[in-house]
Amino acid sequence: GAVVSQHPSRVICKSGTSVKIECRSLDFQATTMFWYRQFPKKSLMLMATSNEGSKATYEQGVEKDKFLINHASLTLSTLTVTSAHPEDSSFYICSARTLGLKETQYFGPGTRLLVL
Amino acid sequence: AQKVTQAQTEISVVEKEDVTLDCVYETRDTTYYLFWYKQPPSGELVFLIRRNSFDEQNEISGRYSWNFQKSTSSFNFTITASQVVDSAVYFCALSDHMEYGNKLVFGAGTILRVKS
Question: What pLDDT does B100 receive?
Answer without folding.
Answer: 43
